[in-house]
Amino acid sequence: MRIIVAGGDGFCGWPTALYLSEKGHEVTIVDNLVRREYDKELNSNSVTPIASLEDRVAKWKELTGKEIKVYEGDLNHYDFLSLVFKQERPEAFVHFAEQRSAPYSMIDREHAVYTHENNVIGNLNVLYAIKEFEPDCHLIKLGTMGEYGQPNIDIEEGYIEVEHKGRKDVLPFPKQPGSFYHLTKVHDTDNIMFACKIWGIRATDLNQGVVYGLNTEETLKDPVLVNRLDYDAIFGTALNRFLTQAAIGHDITVYGSGGQTRGYLNIKDTVRCVEIAAENPADRGEFRVFNQFTESFSVLELAQKIQSVAKGLDIDVEVSNVENPRVEKEEHYYNAVNTALIDLGLEPHLLTDEVLEEILTYSLQHKDRIIVDNVLPKVTWK
Ligand code: NAD
Ligand code: USQ
Fold first, then answer.
1. What is the mean predicted confidence (pLDDT) over 114-135?
2. Which residue among the candidates 16, 28, 185, 253 is catalytic per the annotation?
3. Residues 84-107, buried b or exposed e (16+ Cβ, 10 A)?
4. Model-level pTM?
5. Is 185 in the active site?
6. ipTM
7. How many CB atoms lie within 10 A of CB 162?
8. Catalytic position from the list 16, 28, 144, 237
9. Is 144 assigned a catalytic role?
10. Which domains does the chain have, with CATH numbers?
11. Strand, coil or helix: 191
12. How many A from CA of 35 to the centre of ligand 1?
């Protein structure tokens, strides 16, 4: 299959591009490399030293003989995107290419506006490009579990049957996102749903939970292929971030009481879920939503698991309840459905002590790269 991986230089996109290439698909990466620019802006870095995208794909070709084409450019530039569509004629378009940090979107007005422009308009351009150039192309869009927020009822996969004043309908599940970033995903969802309805586009929205881990079989083939590992308070996400904190002997920063519960998945499952979606495309006009996570944990549970694994490696680390910089429920009901991908064949990699130990070991190897000043949160929601 001819597959475009937009955002293919990023944390989820790079291993996905390699995995799909390994499986024999013709993979093309589209990325404007802006994630590397955010690091410069924030004076931050990946814990692992990552090679340039050029070197990454050259090494992949050298090792496997497989070519991954690269277009360096911005989804917001429609002329550029049109050219990519005309030249590559994608059968599937995997869309990872958005500003994905909630704290980044909450820095100030400029960052909120940038996040909205980048994400919402970029996605709208992709919808128009599909309509104009490849109407049969399957859009596989990365959404987020955070679109649903923290409702006091079970979270369904995209839709819920509602009975109201004696009448019934299946309606989009209510959205209560927790940051301007998460809001962009809700706006994307609405735009995609509408485009499917009016133009007959086929789309799958993968409402992904928090991703942890860094290696896949493919990224382990050579150090040049290593994935990025984010740890700072803006781009680091709960589990990976906590492990890097343990690596430098920093307290694990549980925000508030730590009852915040989210769905999580291993990066190895991210790449497989995308493959499953690509192999089982939505019908023309269908807007399908899959909840993409394998297990749920509270942040306190994660911190305690990591503390215990670190102890096994003779690292003493404290769990510290720091003041929560976000506005969110710290104690709440959480029960989300995630059966669609499992029914299509996903076999989850679960969070074991061995998995935690592996990421911790990687963090320990590169701990000198961690800029300690970036660890504590400075951006607040208030
Ligand atoms: P990332 O920032 O590491 O990667 C995103 C990539 O997209 C970067 O390489 C960046 O340069 C590129 N990009 C951004 N805007 C672009 C644009 N306008 N044009 C071209 N390229 C652009 O993020 P990630 O962690 O790999 O996340 C990928 C996607 O998955 C995002 O949409 C994110 O919202 C979603 N997601 C991520 C997680 C997670 O835990 N990492 C969880 C749920 C959903
Ligand atoms: N948290 C802590 N301590 C920390 C960092 C985070 O307690 O040091 C808490 C947060 O307050 C939050 C939870 O952990 O309650 C998750 O935060 P996070 O930073 O790991 O994840 P989040 O901001 O939700 O965003 C990440 C990705 C985003 C993706 C989302 C999936 O950056 O792209 O959409 O996970 S989800 O959480 O399901 O919405």
1. 99
2. 185
3. bbeebebbbbbbbbbbbbbbbbbb
4. 0.98
5. yes
6. 0.99
7. 12
8. 144
9. yes
10. 2-374 (3.40.50.720)
11. helix
12. 8
